Amino acid sequence: MNQLFKAIVIDDEPAARRLMRNLLKEYDDVVEVIDEAGNGKEAVEKIERLKPDVIFLDIQMPDLTGFEVIDQLSEKPNIIFTTAYEQYAIKAFENFSIDYLLKPIKEERLQQSVEKLKQFGRLNQSINVGELQEIIRQLHEPKKATALPIKTGDRINLIRYENIAFLEAQDKYVCVFTIDGQKFLTDHSLTVLSEKLPREFCRIHRSYIINKDKIREMHRHFSGRYLFIMDDKAASRLTSGRTYQDVFKAEFGL
Asked: What's the pTM value of the predicted model, to 2 decimals?
């Protein structure tokens, strides 16, 4: 006879809780849903009071994260995370003796979790919550973009950052100049573009943003300004502006 696992379904979305309950009906000889919780605080209270054998725990909730819920428990039940994290990031969970279900939950994947419960009875609950949080945080940091998208008619040009020498504001447009002498127009302002560009780009003038990695030479200019000779095909010469003097001096340690 199979062991019957008492379960609590924890998710801040009512539809997600209903779906999980419905899916688990197929395994009512193994899992009995005794309650549900719609937020982290409610989850902690019910887990401590009802002592379930397993919880189906959403990671992202508005009051407490799934990790914070775990951290507040005096005794940890079996934990099966339900999460919308991408598949590649979920690989992090495989280093821990817990399980996960990726949303939208697939019946065959739920079956695997139930089989794991049946096979092992209790999963090893030696969970280092801090370590798990750090892994997930690192995996879900925004991916660093490698190119600047510039729309030209129906076409989008992806200009690799390492190929950009500098950007120059001209009238209502900004020109993006590449090291091989190409020129691309965009209607975004320099201010907007500066928020998209990586740290190797620095604004030296109200009209110029330069790629610090593409500077060939720097020369002191009059009135405390600097002349930058760029390492592009045209050996472009750009002069810094007084307004941005403190910014680029800090960037270059001048």
From this structure: 0.51
